[in-house]
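Problem: given the chain below (221 residues), write out its structure.
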Amino acid sequence: MTERNNDGGLRMRRARWQETVWPRPWFYGGVAVLALVTLLRLAASFRGNIQVDFLCFVDCAQVTFRGQDYHDLSNLTLYHWPSPQIVFPGILILYLPFSWIDIGVAKFIYFWSSAAATIASYWYFMRVTGLARRVSFRAPTLRTAVYFLGWLLYLHSSPLLMGLRHGQSSIWCLWGLLLALTWRNRWSGVAFGAAAVLKYSMLTFRGQDYHDLSNLTLYHW
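Solution.
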């Protein structure tokens, strides 16, 4: 009986600790400081990297728009590419508008829109799964702290930062899959199709020309 009472008292103390309301000014002041640190790290990532994947997409898109072969390195102008680039040709149309503006402006728009989409993806996931409804934002508790801690760890994860630094399309593919799984209308198919075009459909080139039949191996074309 004594052991059972001790266990019950421990659970009650733990529950009270978990539901303890933290002073809101101090709590959100700390969140603001961590958010500032995150923004500064994102800014450093933007300044210290050339977004090589984004440059590749834009370079190949503008070459394709001119009716030229982007496997011919002499047609590529945005970077000194050491070898023919491997791209998913279905996504080039999505990057063509970036070739119509200054490349520095284009990199700025793409990086920070990708960063905003990354931040929003965490909020959307927590919202659609119902986890956000279990968090009190007006009276912050331990759950509120875990919510923002998860956001912080997500934004500082190495794969995510690498994708932003290189200008990859992964975050937009993630959004396509999230919307495809959560929308309940015809647009879910559109979202899934967009994700497929970004990453999973189309032929992955090996830096070779698929017009040359000797490079095709699965059938005698």
